[in-house]
Design goal:
This protein has 11 helices and 10 strands. It is of the alpha+beta class. It has 3 domains: 24-205, no CATH class; 210-345, Up-down Bundle (Methane Monooxygenase Hydroxylase, Chain G, domain 1), CATH 1.20.58; 355-426, no CATH class. A 10-stranded mixed β-sheet has the order 2-3-4-5-1-6-9-8-7-10, with helices on both faces. The protein starts with 13 loop residues before the first helix and ends in a 12-residue tail after the last helix.
Length: 439
């Protein structure tokens, strides 16, 4: 009986996630070799144009496709060249590999001139790597050619001492040049070293994109911190709610400026930190050994690149802390204004209560006058009626009848008004009452 594997429903992203382990593999390199790489910074709207630009080369140039991850990377053979194209989040890279020793112009001559001239984006990094066998270029001879009074040179053993690396990190013909002397480096390992050097140069430049912004923000942060201090100083002397509202307006304007700066620079600073970590990791992967009198690539980058990255990190922290301080102070000021408003509202309510009590007293006084007025008119009505029936009530006179009825009329008027007041109090229980003299 033949065993069959069960059929499972695969996850929609399983293949993509699995292939991520094999993304951007290094290329096998044997010495001697010439490698040239360029990285072009792209704006978000240029990514589609970059993909179309690469497709134009494939459509019009005879090539052999060696590797491909559609839309992300491709490795093709064009003549004697191996051409690697990669698309990243912020840039695309183009790397040329050729066996033997060649000039940059010789390599570029293999590509269509018009295609090269229309590459989207702006050049951000360029690396030239020459790989020489140790038999043709002994390390001591190469070191002897270095001018001791010239630019600082990075020189170190790499790959556990099986090779040598030299560079001065200066631009020569618009490119940073690296020389690798191959003692006994395996071809695939040599390809990984080449890739790490290209990534170090590219990520180094991308990390430094945040540095000019950090230097500009240092000035702005000093002004914003001074303005915040002035607002909080003025808060101590603000006594009226109008003054506190004015301070809150100033604080809100300051918050808007800082938050706009955070929104504009937050991604750049975060990306710089990520790129810097990649540079450190790639430098660590070279497994360098020191050569007497020379700095290693890792040590050189730590001394020259770390201060700029520390500045970016410091400005990023200052900006975040300032934003948090403004938020706290704004909340404090809003709370203070709210308390003042509540106090003011309480005073208004107290005034309304006093006015209501005064109105109640006036109403009671009016009620007393009403009892007198009703009693008077009631007595007049009885007097008039008594005149009409005078013959039947003799010996009582109309005046006597009115005088006798007056207390009864007054009592009825008083009781009627009191009953009306009670009914109104039941209908409107929140009507302010006169406080008890014993309260």
């Amino acid at each position: 009986m033949t065993a069959h594997s069960p059929t499972f429903q695969p996850h929609a992203l399983r293949h993509i996630l699995h292939q991520e382990l094999h993304a951007r593999p290094s290329i096998v390199v044997t010495s001697p070799a010439t490698i040239r790489s360029w990285a072009f910074f792209l704006e978000p709207e240029q990514h589609e144009a970059a993909a179309l630009h690469w497709q134009q080369l494939l459509d019009h140039q005879r090539h052999l496709l060696l590797e491909e991850a559609p839309g992300q990377q491709a490795l093709v053979q064009i003549g004697t060249l191996r051409l690697k194209w990669e698309r990243h989040i912020e840039f695309i890279s183009l790397t040329l590999y050729a066996e033997g020793n060649h000039s940059t112009a010789h390599l570029l001559a293999e590509l269509p001139p018009r295609w090269l001239a229309t590459i989207p984006g702006a050049l951000i990094a360029a690396a030239a790597i020459d790989v020489q066998p140790i038999t043709d270029t002994p390390p001591d001879d190469f070191l002897a050619q270095i001018d001791p009074l010239g630019p600082a040179t990075v020189a170190s053993k790499i790959a556990d001492g099986t090779g040598y690396l030299f560079t001065d990190f200066q631009l020569h013909d618009g490119m940073t040049h690296f020389t690798i002397i191959d003692g006994a480096i395996l071809p695939r390992q040599l390809g990984r070293i080449v890739q790490r050097l290209i990534e170090i140069e590219t990520y180094r430049m991308l990390a430094l994109l945040a540095f000019p912004a950090a230097r500009r923000l240092q000035v702005d942060l000093a002004l914003w911190e001074k303005r915040l201090a002035e607002v909080m100083h003025d808060l101590e002397s603000a006594q009226t709610i109008a003054a506190e509202r004015h301070l809150l307006t100033r604080l809100t304007q300051l918050s808007a400026e800082v938050e706009r700066s955070v929104a504009n620079s937050n991604f750049r600073f975060s990306a710089a930190a990520a790129y810097y970590r990649l540079v450190q990791q790639r430098a660590e992967d070279l497994r360098e050994g020191r050569l007497t009198g020379y700095s290693t690539l890792k040590g050189f980058l730590e001394r020259r690149l770390a201060p700029a990255m520390n500045t970016c990190a410091t400005v990023y922290r200052r900006q975040e802390e300032l934003s948090a301080r403004i938020a706290r102070n704004s909340q404090l000021l809003r709370t203070r204004v709210d308390l003042k408003l509540q106090e003011q509202n309480q005073q208004i309510l107290d005034q309304m209560n006093r006015r209501a009590r005064l109105q109640l007293r006036l109403q009671e006084a009016a009620e007393h006058f009403s009892v007198v007025a009703i009693s008077y008119y009631g007595a007049q009505i009885i007097h008039t009626l008594a005149k009409g029936i005078a013959p039947w009530i003799a010996p009582l006179t109309p005046e006597l009848m009115a005088a006798m009825a007056l207390p009864l009329v007054a009592l009825l008027a008083f009781l009627s008004i009191r009953r009306l007041r009670k009914r109104l109090h039941v209908s409107f229980p929140d009507t302010p009452q006169e406080p008890s003299p014993h309260g």
